[in-house]
Amino acid sequence: MNRFPLKIAGIAVALTMASSAFAGDQYVDPTGYAVSGYDVVAYFDLAQNPVGTAQPQAVPGDKDITSTYNGATFAFSSEENKAKFDANPDAYLPQYDGHCAYGVAKGGKVPGNPHLWRILDGKLYLNITENVVGFWEEDIPGNLQLSEANWVDIEDDPASDRAIPQFESPAPVN
């Protein structure tokens, strides 16, 4: 069921305007890991569901397979994924330092939930709650334009220190 129609051409325009969106403090939740200990490289191997439907669950990282980047520890499910990240971290980092894409569109930094994700134009975006995903998906191109414009002003603000609502993040496996 696709409740939110998209104008694909509009997404391409909005993403073309997107800049590198990950230079401030990375959001780290109480696990002590970026993206709650989930493998950021693994997202790019998951089948992405259509807008308006839930995405597959994120892949947990392994506490013994980690890299530090942008002041945060990232966990990976395999040595191969760690090597991919280490070779080109910018290709895998969640946008807005792991903060909610819709929150940035509204002008603030709030946590990004690793299970509420979407990849657009090769970039990983997270959102905070299922309700927020609905708002974001109603106008992805417009919200990305707002996010990119707002990010310039809030990027240097401290990372969110809030917990992700209704989310229990297990520490990375093993």
Key words describing this protein structure:
two-stranded antiparallel sheet; alpha+beta
Q: What integer value in Å does the Rg equal?
A: 15 Å
Number of domains: 1
Described by the principal axes of the CA atoms, the overall outline is: globular
Which regions have little confidence, pLDDT < 50, spanning 5+ residues? 1-23
Number of strands: 4
Descriptive report:
There is one protein chain. With 174 residues, this protein is α+β, with helices and mostly antiparallel strands. The protein has one domain (8-154). Helices cover 28% and strands 15% of the residues. The protein has helices at residues 8-17, 79-87, 101-105, 130-138, 140-154, and strands at 62-69, 72-76, 113-120, 123-127. The strands form 2 sheets. Strands 1-2 form a two-stranded antiparallel sheet. A two-stranded antiparallel sheet has the order 3-4. A hairpin with a 2-residue loop joins strand 3 (113-120) and strand 4. Helix 1 (8-17) packs parallel to helix 5. It is globular. Residues 1-23 have low confidence and may be disordered.
Annotate the secondary structure layout.
Elements lengths: L7 H10 L44 E8 L2 E5 L2 H9 L13 H5 L7 E8 L2 E5 L2 H9 L1 H15 L20
Antiparallel strand pairs: 1-2, 3-4
Helix pairs in contact: 1-5
Brief summary of the model shown:
With 174 residues, the chain is α+β, with helices and mostly antiparallel strands. The chain is 28% helix and 15% strand.
